[in-house]
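Exercise 7. Predict the joint structure of the components listed below.
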Amino acid sequence: MKADYTLYLVTDRRAMSAETLEAAVEQALLGGCTMVQLRETGADERTFYDSACAVKKITDCYGVPLIINNSVAIALAAGAAGVHIGQRDLPAETARRLIGPDMLLGVSASSVQEALRAQADGADYIGVGAVFPTNTKKDAPRVSWDCLEEIRRAVRIPIVAIGGISMDNIAQFAGRGINGAAVVSAVIAQPDIRRAAAALREEMTKVLLL
Amino acid sequence: MKADYTLYLVTDRRAMSAETLEAAVEQALLGGCTMVQLRETGADERTFYDSACAVKKITDCYGVPLIINNSVAIALAAGAAGVHIGQRDLPAETARRLIGPDMLLGVSASSVQEALRAQADGADYIGVGAVFPTNTKKDAPRVSWDCLEEIRRAVRIPIVAIGGISMDNIAQFAGRGINGAAVVSAVIAQPDIRRAAAALREEMTKVLLL
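Solution:
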């Protein structure tokens, strides 16, 4: 599946400024987010599934792919566009086997080895980070600019940078060959989610042209 | 799939007496457990999946079905015989849709309403409990004898009783129309797992004849 990774929203209820997750996602989509990953850390399966179904109604309205963090079963059950897995989730090749060839598979990678492995195992894209310090995922390993460049040279699949990306630093991606930026707090924790997303989308579109 | 629910082992690493889970399961099977449910509360997906693959090698050797607690994806990925879900996991009808008609689907139920719903949603059997106080799942609701009898009258699918079942109380199931007893600590926490399982199996076989 072809996807536009330009501004990739990752949700986080703990960091949310809007009253409901659906409202936050809708504002982010109105602002120009091109993809949504639903991350429900710590929620039980039923809550996560119900949330996936509710958010999918919004993403479907805007024609934007919904990716489910971690859970292949919920991605399949909710009819999501894909699933994003980390290094401690199911092996990527196993996830690919379960979701079939058409659903999107994203894999987190923070080294060249992990990136190459993800590509070989059938990932459609890799999430690389944390490129900047982040409060929303404190256990995330850090990825240096050198490492990001090495990964870019090593794999041919799209790269989405993640980790502490905001208006203060997004311009630093110019010329680095990434395909998109994943944002959490820089969108979902802002008082005006739509405006925050629109500003980041504009900036990121410029970055991708450089 | 036809299954023998007589003595249904549910694993719990925290309660384990053996050095490895594989060793504990093998001893339990040698003692006569007829089914195994792998429960890995709190483990990450990769650890759970690796554990499922390792335990499946043992259950396959003994021709005993392996059921995966909670995770449809791991059940599918590991090629398990089935999945067991609770009331806060994926809806049973959704789980059934994902696993297809042939894999076993177990659903926890602690009321007539939940039991009937599970049956309607495609459960192969229900786990009913906690029938006795239990330390391995402290948040489990209690089910009275009256409620168990009401459930037995209400559904036609097999019932596996669970919760604090041991040699001290297993004889109390005589004549109650259940199809098996699920045990955790009464097998897996015992110094001689094989002997503990054999004694429970013998007792439960008598109970099922009454």
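Discussion. Chain A has a mean pLDDT of 96.
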